[in-house]
């Protein structure tokens, strides 16, 4: 069977026709929740790297299923070739099927949630797909994130919404994701939002920042 990966190479769409916003933050910081709200406001396509990986993991015949499952359970990062290819394919598909609906400036609007989580991903995506216009980073205290994830775990069915996986995800966040945030901060693209606050307050701060990017 053909692989979904045929090397990271130029995507099939024109990078000048898309606006990409990265949405980062620890597990349970509220990335998915806030993306849902921003989709309503601005007509973004919301691409969660974690959701794309879970879908690929469960796809019948996927040769990456076991590898993805192990990484997710252990809170480690899936090799970039897999994640970037999945993102690129999802972006191409959206650009074909939506053809501008809800994108008032004619550019494809993408919220990329939970990515990049490692420096190699940040650099490769920038080189082969495009650079982000803005980066939203939701920051919550560890005890707040633990409480939210354990609550979510009661119904999410996710193999990593438990305290053992969570501790490993926090470790990965410190070691790998924080350097990516520093790198993006040096480019002046990062807005940090305190997500111990209410969903409403986080949304207000996030949507103000997006307004400035999309004008
Ligand atoms: N600001 C907030 N205040 C209280 N609960 C929140 C807040 N943001 C998200 N939640 C809840 O916390 C859980 C994790 O949020 P989610 O958006 O899935 O986080 P992430 O995508 O960052 O892992 C969800 O059950 C969500 O309803
Ligand atoms: O670019 C990515 C994004 C996610 N993941 C994996 O998917 C898991 C779940 O990520 P998601 O963003 O869905 O969940 P969160 O930890 O933010 O709740 C992570 O812990 C990683 O194992 C990954 O390998 N690369």
UniProtKB/TrEMBL annotation:
Keyword Transferase applies: yes
Matching Pfam families: ADK
Annotated binding of a ribonucleoside 5'-phosphate, by residue: 54, 76-78, 114-117, 121, 158, 169
UniProt keyword ATP-binding, yes or no: yes
Comment on bound cofactor: Binds 1 Mg(2+) ion per monomer.
Protein known as: Uridylate kinase
Organism of this sequence: Boletus reticuloceps
The protein's role, per its UniProt record: Catalyzes the phosphorylation of pyrimidine nucleoside monophosphates at the expense of ATP. Plays an important role in de novo pyrimidine nucleotide biosynthesis. Has preference for UMP and dUMP as phosphate acceptors, but can also use CMP, dCMP and AMP.
Domain notes: Consists of three domains, a large central CORE domain and two small peripheral domains, NMPbind and LID, which undergo movements during catalysis. The LID domain closes over the site of phosphoryl transfer upon ATP binding. Assembling and dissambling the active center during each catalytic cycle provides an effective means to prevent ATP hydrolysis.
Reactions catalysed: UMP + ATP = UDP + ADP
Top-level division of the source organism's lineage: Eukaryota
Cofactors that this protein relies on: Mg(2+)
CDD domains listed in its UniProt record: ADK
Primary subcellular site in the record, as a coarse category: cytoplasm
Amino acids binding ATP: 28-33, 152, 197
BP terms from Gene Ontology: 'de novo' pyrimidine nucleobase biosynthetic process; nucleoside monophosphate metabolic process; pyrimidine nucleotide biosynthetic process
Subunit structure: Monomer.
